[in-house]
Amino acid sequence: MEISTAELWTLTAASLVVLMTPALGLFYGGMTRATGVVNMMLMSFTAAAMTAVVWVLWGYSLASGEPMLGGLLGAPLNDFALLGTDMADLLPVGFAGAFAMIAVAIISGAIADRSRFGAWLLFVPVWVSLVYAPVAFWVWGGGLLDADGWLGQRFGEAIDFAGGAVIHTNAGVAALVLALKLGPRHNFHDRPQPHNTPLVMLGAALLWFGWFGFNAGAATTVEQAGLIWVNTLIAPGAAVLGWILMEKLRGQRPTSVGVASGLVAGLVAITPSCANVAPWAALLLGLVAGMAAAWAVNLKWKLGYDDSLDVVGVHLVAGVVGTLALGFVALPGLEEPAGLIYGGGPALLVSQLVTCLVVVVFSATVTGVIALAVDKLIGWRVDGSTEVAGIDAAEHQESGYQLVR
Fold first, then answer.
1. Which end of the chain is more exposed for a tag (fewer CB within 10 A), N or C?
2. Can you list the pairs that 205-210 forms with residues at least 24 positions away whose Cβ atoms lie under 8 Å?
3. Is 134's pLDDT higher than 80?
4. Residue 302 near residue 251, CB atoms below 8 Å
5. Where is the Ammonium transporter AmtB-like domain (predicted)?
6. Is the pLDDT of residue 405 over 70?
7. Secondary-structure class of domain 5-396 per CATH
8. pTM for the whole thing?
9. Is pLDDT above 60 for 80?
């Protein structure tokens, strides 16, 4: 059977999404201390590796199988991908698996420089199975928030085209839970600076590149793909300007880390709405998301929680902003309701709000239970001397840099 254009595009888009997880490793790695860059990047790479295995064995079934337990889960092993041979059946497995990889990798940025590597290796497969897969099923697979689920029937189906709630809000909440569980780094109040800003910029650039596959991979028409592509171009651009503006209002100068973070915040915000808003709305959304994320990252200094690499501000806040914005600016569609600006009434806004609330409460609760269990089994936090000396040497017997005179 010859490969179709649509199947070829899905293969290409999925490959772009796979690139995003190591790109995140670069982005996060540059933001850590020089003595923690190896550990930080390995957390992204191992998240991708373990999620790939989990997804093929049972994760995809949990996220897309026949509804069970009242629509709370897909039936495990309903679609046992490991035994599949038909490309048409396996393409959705691979594409969805790439999304799961980046979702769990995002969380790692909140616990940089102080988490035991073994604890992370235990956390990843459990979180993908018990948190990510159920949420993906609820929103995309026919579960309780989908049109076929009981919450979807009661409050209306929410729009989350590429994962503003499923991925970014979900991972952002989990990141906050782990940051609170592990506590702040020993030098948290000294405001540790990124050790390699060019690495941060390179990671952000590769994330932007991969994000075109992330958002447009599920496009079904040329017109829809064009809209998604332009929105994915313009929203992060506007978010960078929003972040710079917020830095200016604080009396600060523009920074490379700020520009990179603003770029990612804009990408996060446009993710749920990329196929459902006009370019003017994408521009406005990016601007608002960039300013909101820049404001939110400063909360950790005021409230005292150590979200090391600003996962909460960039992913949770921007993800919620992008998800709720659809209630106001969603274009009229054949199947989806319009936002308030287009005369759609409050129904869509209610659906988006309910989705955010359900994801926040579920992710916080189950992630908290997983975090406690991991801590009881093997412990999360490295000892103080290891943290001060640098986690790379103790956990991996490696160094990110070998400087020879």
1. C
2. 206/19, 206/20, 206/22, 206/23, 206/26, 207/20, 207/23, 207/24, 207/27, 207/263, 207/264, 207/267, 208/236, 208/263, 208/267, 209/16, 209/19, 209/23, 210/16, 210/17, 210/18, 210/19, 210/20, 210/23
3. yes
4. no
5. 9-401
6. no
7. mainly alpha
8. 0.96
9. no
